[in-house]
Sequence to fold (215 residues):
Amino acid sequence: MRIVLVGPPGAGKGTQAAFLAKNLSIPHISTGDLFRANISQGTELGKQAKAYMDAGDLVPDEVTIGMAKDRMEQPDAVNGFLLDGFPRNVSQAAALDEMLRAAGMKLDAVLDLEVEEDEVVKRIAGRRICRNDSAHVFHVTYAPPKAEGVCDTCGGELYQRGDDSEATVRNRLEVYHTQTEPIIDYYKGQGLLVTIPALGEVADVTKRAMDALPK
Fold:
């Protein structure tokens, strides 16, 4: 299957992508992983992306599209893939359509993880990270530490990352609404969009997504 996963920041795309890709035996292809792999391997596209990122600029669509194309042509993606973070706008969606058309392929579904904006803010702004080990993550509501501000695992201080503040989260949501949300109508017009309520237990959301996919 060839699937695109969309949804606002905090919707749980990364978590759901990992479970869905495993259940469907297809690779999970995320934009973040593409950038990191190309930059660490020193590819030409990676060098271009790094130059833009180091200058504080957005990586142009053609660089991102090139990385995605290279990844989708790898042997493990021949029978399908799950795209997470790409396409990010309508131009990238149109480019993906053209790539697949040229290869005699098409998307099977676009899964839209739907979460209310206030819930997104609550999820992200409530995160607390251990200063000693960033792998130790808590949440003031959903996974609170036993002692406020103290890591259960190592006793380190818990803090809120700057990009997890409410103001930053709302700004990220505004960027999502402006740049990425239009692809929802784009894919709805193609009859590919499936909306998945993303509240509840992770396993329940995964089951909703699996049940909604074309058989």
